[in-house]
Amino acid sequence: MDSKRNRRIRVLGKILFVLYIVFIIYFLLFSDWYGRTGEMQEYHYNFVLFQEIKRFWKYRDQVGFFAMFTNLFGNVIIFVPFGFFMPMASRYRSFFSTVFYSFGLSLCVETFQLLTKVGSFDVDDLLLNTIGGLCGYILFIICEAVRRRNVNKKKAKNRRR
Q1: What pLDDT does residue 130 have?
Q2: Which residues in the chain belong to E strands, given as ranges?
Q3: pLDDT band for position 89 (50/70/90)?
Q4: Is 90 helix (H, G, I), strand (E, B) or coil?
Q5: 0.70 cut: is pTM over it?
Q6: Neighbour count for residue 130 (Cβ, 10 Å)
Q7: Which of 30, 51, 127, 129 might form a disulfide with 79, Cβ 3.0–4.6 angstroms?
Q8: In 5-160, at which residue ranges do the beta strands (DSSP E only) sit?
Q9: Please, what's the b/e burial string for 85-109 (b: 16 or more CB within 10 A of its CB; e: otherwise)?
């Protein structure tokens, strides 16, 4: 029964992971919510770590709370599901694998934006996206520990009967 349930959870994780990847590719590359409907006339990019983070924080009153929040926290939040579903859906469940693949996906997105001039390449986004993947992994580890604890309690309870 447990292996059947674990298999179902794994399949669900894989389905959610694929749906998330489709969503993130659409949202980060093609969504017109952030003006990604066409090539920019003047392309902006940032190769200096912390430059855009500092700028958004310093000028938060001028750019507005929404712009500041979506740039600083949105880049973290959008990669949390990746860090959660990646170890659930694959056999690569380590901290380093999650950080590596979070960074890799973010680098692919940023490079695509650089080459197509849709959105903007920003090394700060690489950092924030990777931190988001790491946060998702920590959430996965916590949920996995809670699940194992509950499973072990049920097993112990069944043995006492």
Answers
A1: 97
A2: 45-46, 121-122
A3: confident
A4: coil
A5: yes
A6: 25
A7: 129
A8: 45-46, 121-122
A9: bbbbbeeeeeeeebbebbbebbbeb
